[in-house]
Amino acid sequence: MARCVPQHLIKDRIDSARERLQKCEIDGLIVLSPTNKGYLSGFTTGTNIAPGGVLLITAGEESPHYITSTVDFQECRERLQPRGFEVLRYDYRKGQNALSITVDAARRLGLRKVGVPQSSITAGQLRSYEQEFDQAEILPIEDFIAVLREVKDEWEIKQIRAANRVSSNAFERIIRQVKPGMTEWQLAAELEYRLRLGGEGSPRLAFSSVVVSGPRTCMPHGSVTRRKLQRGDLVTVDFGATCNGYCADITRTFVVGSPTDRQRKIYSAVLQAQLTAIKQVGPGNKRAKAAQRGMDVLGEKGLAEYAVHGAGGHGIGLQVHEGPTTGECGLWEPGNVVTIEPGVYIPGWGGVRIEDDVLVTETGYEVLTPIKKDLLQVKS
Amino acid sequence: MARCVPQHLIKDRIDSARERLQKCEIDGLIVLSPTNKGYLSGFTTGTNIAPGGVLLITAGEESPHYITSTVDFQECRERLQPRGFEVLRYDYRKGQNALSITVDAARRLGLRKVGVPQSSITAGQLRSYEQEFDQAEILPIEDFIAVLREVKDEWEIKQIRAANRVSSNAFERIIRQVKPGMTEWQLAAELEYRLRLGGEGSPRLAFSSVVVSGPRTCMPHGSVTRRKLQRGDLVTVDFGATCNGYCADITRTFVVGSPTDRQRKIYSAVLQAQLTAIKQVGPGNKRAKAAQRGMDVLGEKGLAEYAVHGAGGHGIGLQVHEGPTTGECGLWEPGNVVTIEPGVYIPGWGGVRIEDDVLVTETGYEVLTPIKKDLLQVKS
Q: Which of A21, A52, B68, B149 is most buried, by the most CB atoms less than 10 A from its CB?
């Protein structure tokens, strides 16, 4: 598997951004979010996805500028100069910062109208940018790069597929070690170790894992504690590795020992809701329908009130939560990758969630998560 | 060690925030940053430090309101209601969000002027807040909670001390396994596993570790790669566990086998710079002096140009980078905790960094990081 995104894809992405800038009659774009910087530069494997600083793209043919601190300068130059980026550094010791060097660059490039996504700049930063830019006007705009990212290309799909494979292997290996007396904490640490070892090109996990057990499974994103697993517990594990910056996001609920009738029944309802929701995913289908149909199943079983986050999910990619979601109007497009994750949480009793990553294909959908979904019973 | 911050400290923190609000004639504060929410509520052990949503504090005696999603509601209520917080939920399925429920609460509380730190709200969010708040004016303000956090109380110091102990134990255990042929990646995974297992009350690491080897040590925050360690390599490892949300941040450079004269010389210069800088830390001393004196040492050895991030450091606490820093004017106060981390990075050759966490005491300083600083040689 190629470690780095092919150069022609970087070119396509920057061309798409430029096209959009030209359409909006803006002549520059300031990119601050690590995921957008990673997407447009191909540098997605740093400790913060992409290194800190500013990516400045023009509507014209000038090289994109990556403006970073002296700390990240060498690696940025090594990796981005061969891709046609101009890499500039700021040095705090000389009173410089990302903003001051960006202002200089914008002046040299003769930019007059510079857009900045208002979802990735703080109100305080925006004020500084408005004050410091002398020759250009700063325009807070919608984050159209995040929208471009909603449709994954073949290389990106490969990464998400690989992240799912790594995550699934880690889970299947760890699940064999689970037994009563193990703490939530140990389970999380062992799983994360495997996720971390198996990932590619980036040292980070997709997110801090959730491991909740027994009655604590009624908390969808509960903290990990030192609670010991007990015979009869439900255990919910929400986890994901990254490959070259791209996330997997998977949840399984299993039982320690033999399930009770009620555990079996609730699990089977959630599974049926998930399978039903997944079947609604396909190009041209309404996004909201997946969650609706999943909820219909839970409603029929009298479980709707316990499905506190519904039966749909969210896009995944460089971020573990990104667009598109099943909570939005609009239609699926080939290349969207989304989680489908219905959950039922009964206070005082416990909960069940089943989450897979699903790709929208040209003709329908493909589930990228290879872990089986029968109610898994670990030895007690 | 107490797992939870004592209630009287929570009361003190909220009282300090209220005092400041009264002084500024603002009658409410919207807290959005996870670290500030964690600091003011004591909930610092969630997967994102504190759960998502809004913490609303009034200048008066009303209970603080924690407004969170249905996903985090149960755990928030369990943990924060006994501490005197009113916990409210928003339900996306009903068209609610954090903002809509916060507006309702502010209206009920009769708030007229509500401050929000401009460094933790995006420009887009601020626009929505300004539009949706009907009876109250929204005022972007400086983040005075982050400033309160710069002086740690006894409980917080205990956590940072514990995080340093865990991190040091992990490092000393892993270093015995290091040998030529091991990859940067494996070293990072093994170390993070131990950091993760040993931490307390929070599943996260302080940050994604840096492990760079050989010529790659000239990149202070280089990505972790599959490069194999070789005899003669310098290896730099920058890492930290968390305890109840509080970070350690430690760096050591070691050598695989026997050091060359140049390696020994550069290491010794960096160590001398670090020891000199640390001696400048003490109550009432100028913050900037630590970095200056450290740089003086490097300058005398002709290494100043290679010290790309200087010879000082930054505050640590719930965030791995917070105030105060050695780059600022102002004086040290007892309770500040800061890294001192000079580094020298010679392109094409390699680099050395030595970083400890240092507490400002009533009478001087205390180094919280117990790992020795002689140039460590691992077996080759």
A: B68
